[in-house]
UniProtKB/TrEMBL annotation:
Top-level taxon of the source organism: Eukaryota
GO biological-process terms attached to the record: fatty acid alpha-oxidation
Family: Belongs to the PhyH family.
Protein name as annotated: phytanoyl-CoA dioxygenase
E.C. numbers: 1.14.11.18
InterPro entries (UniProt xref): PhyH, Phytyl_CoA_dOase-like
Gene Ontology MF annotations: phytanoyl-CoA dioxygenase activity
Gene3D superfamilies named among the record's database cross-references: q2cbj1_9rhob like domain (2.60.120.620)
Enzyme class: oxidoreductase
């Protein structure tokens, strides 16, 4: 694949051409075990605290998938994204991990 068609990733030795193409086509890339299980669990817990409104994050938007409401009611399982969470130090730490 020519890098001419890869507009969202850079030529380097971090990702394979196949990984870059997958990201270009799908908008995400899954790399298993990139982040430790311990960190993932800490981020998951903080995400759940935000969803349950146990912690208030200034400016954060909690996005819900209303199609799941009939299955999960008002539980945190209907939340599919938390946006603008940079004021939450623990969850934002994910964005600053060298692995990421």
């Amino acid at each position: 694949v020519s890098s001419l068609y890869l507009s969202y990733t850079l030529d380097n030795d971090v990702l394979t051409t196949e990984q870059r193409q997958f990201y270009e086509d799908n908008g995400y890339l899954l790399i298993k075990k990139l982040v430790s299980d311990e960190d993932i669990e800490r981020f998951r817990k903080e995400f759940m605290r935000i969803c349950k409104k146990e912690v208030k994050v200034p400016g954060a938007m909690i996005m819900k998938n209303e199609a799941l409401r009939s299955q999960y009611g008002k539980s945190e399982k209907v939340v599919n994204k938390v946006q603008d969470f940079q004021e939450d130090e623990e969850l934002f730490r994910y964005c600053t991990l060298p692995e990421v």
